[in-house]
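Figure 2 data, in text form.
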Amino acid sequence: MSREGVRRILTVYFAVGALYGVFHLLATPGSGDWDWGAIVRNILGWMVGPLILGGFLPALFWGFSNFRAERARAPLLWCGLLAVLFAFASAAQGFYGGSLSLQKIPQNVPALFSNEHDKFVRIVRNSCEENLQKHAVAGATSLQSAAFCRCYANALAEGLTTRELAIALTSQDAMSPGMRRKVLLAAPPCRKQAFDSAQGGGAPPHH
């Protein structure tokens, strides 16, 4: 095997590792709502295992042979197989444990490229629905809860400025008084609209 062939194979291993990282990202529930910094960090993190096995170790073993081209084939082959087995085992564990789902890929692909308004609505709605599953409104149906969360998320997104949306999506700091006021004002109309017919309907928690 020539040195050019070795470089090409290592390049292929790197590309496959990157594709594995992207696949892992798309199959992770909720990853479509991550910011780009988190996306890049996680892709690089998922690439590490296959790259170490498929790229770094073969180069290391090849170095022990004084980088002689004829000694490169075996390390590349065996470490490449180890990398594939590692990737399959890691993915299988993720699917079995629920941290990965093929059904999430069609949702995450468009979500990655959605605008801040749509991303904010999706995050708030999902958080609201999870909250109402844990703290259900007495007498309310799942359809009413979903209607409330949809109304609340859209009303809140419409009430925030572009700058406030960007802050809400990226900042971990406490909300400003102005944003907190808008959060509190968004819920009552939606609560009335969604839970009017709920028997003994209590008010869902504020978000």
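Caption note: The chain has two domains: 3-109, 114-195.
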